[in-house]
Amino acid sequence: MIICVSANPAIDRRIRLKKLNIGEVNRVESSISFAGGKAAHVAMVAKILGEEVIWIGFLGGSNGEKVQKQLSEFGINVIAIPTISETRNNDEIIDENGIITEILERGSEIQPNELDEIFYVCEQTFAEFPSNFQAVFSGSLPPNVPNDFYFNLTNKARKFGGKVFLDTSGNALLKGLKANPDLVKPNRSEAEKICGFTIFDKVSAVKAAEFFQNQGAKNVALSLGETGLIYLSNEGNNPIYAKPPKVKVKSTVGCGDSTIAAFAIASARNLDEKETLKLAIACGAANCLADLPGQISFEMVQELIKEIEIC
Fold it and tell me: What residues have CB less than 8 Å from 257, skipping those under 6 apart?
C-alpha cells in the first residue's frame, strides 16, 4: 500500500500561450486543470503503475470537492480532512519556447482541530497496514502547520513499521530529517539552499547527499534535473549516478513527484538498487512528456527504462 499525505493540495492549471508579456494583456491558447499538489502527483503515478493508493489531505470549498472527485475517479482512495478555508489554485504558464512560469498560492489556513484530525486519520490508516505500507510525505506546508509536521508523521509511520519517503524543502525538510526518513529526494535548488554551497558537478552533489545523510536521512536521491540523479544509500556503497534519456520536454513540473513515487513503488516491490533507479528516472522522464503533472504513460515508462544509464 502506498499512502500519500498532502498538507497543501491544489487545483493545478496548465496554461499555454505564445509569450508571457509582463504588464500587458495575455491571451491564452489553451488551459487544462486537474487535482494537484505534490502528493496528488505521487498518488497518480503509483496508481498508473498498478499500486493500491490512499491519499490523505486537507480539502476545503469547491476546489476541495473537485480534488476529491477527480482523484477518486482516478481510482485513488481519498480520505479528506475538511477545512474551513478553500483549497488553493496553482498556475503553470508555458510559452511557445517552453519557458515555464509557476504561480503558486501559499495555501489555506489550517485550524488547530483540522491539524489534530489529519494526525489522527494518518495514525489510524497506518495502523491498518502494519509493516506493509510505504508513506510518501511531500509538498510545502500551508499557514498554521508547524515545521515539525513531517517529523511527527514520520515517527507515527515508523511506529507501525512503515517506510517513509520525504520530499519537501526548507525548515520542514530540516526538521523532518531528524526523524530518519528512509529516503529524501531534494532537487538541486532545495539542496543548495539547505547545504549552503553550489552543486556544480558530481563531487559537490555527493557532498550534498552526504550532508542529508549526516542530518538523519537513511538514503538520499539528489535530483540534478536533466543531467540525472545521485543516489547515496545507507549500506555504505559508493554513490550511484543515474542518467536520464533525452526527451522532448512538455513540462518539468511534477517530475520530482513522479521520481519519488517510483522509489516508494520499488520499495513495495523489493526491487534492487539498479531496478529502483531505472524506474525512478524513467518515471521522471515520462512526466516530462505528460499532458498534466503525474499523469504519465505506463507504456512510456517501460520504453524509457531501457534507455537509462546507471554508473
Answer: 38, 39, 41, 42, 45, 138, 167, 287, 293, 294
pTM of the model: 0.95
| CA separation for the pair 48, 67 (Å, rounded) | 17
* 179 half-sphere exposure, CB direction, 13 A CA radius: 25
Q: In sequence order, what are the residues at sequence separation of 6 or more whose Cβ sits closer than 8 angstroms to the Cβ of residue 215?
A: 174, 177, 178
DSSP 106: -
| Band of pLDDT at residue 108, cut at 50, 70 and 90 | confident
Domains of the chain (ranges plus CATH)? Answer: 2-310 (3.40.1190.20)
Question: CA of 255: how far to CAs of 208, 286, 295, in Å?
Answer: 20, 8, 10
What string of DSSP letters covers 2-69? EEEEESS-EEEEEEE-S---TTS----SEEEEEEESHHHHHHHHHHHTT--EEEEEEE-HHHHHHHHH
Q: What angle do CA 129, 134, 136 make, to 5 degrees?
A: 125
Evaluated on CA atoms 4, 160, 127, 266, the torsion sign reads positive
Q: Give the confidence band of 186 by pLDDT, cuts at 50, 70, 90.
A: very high
CA-closest candidate to residue 7, choices 111, 119, 140, 116? 140
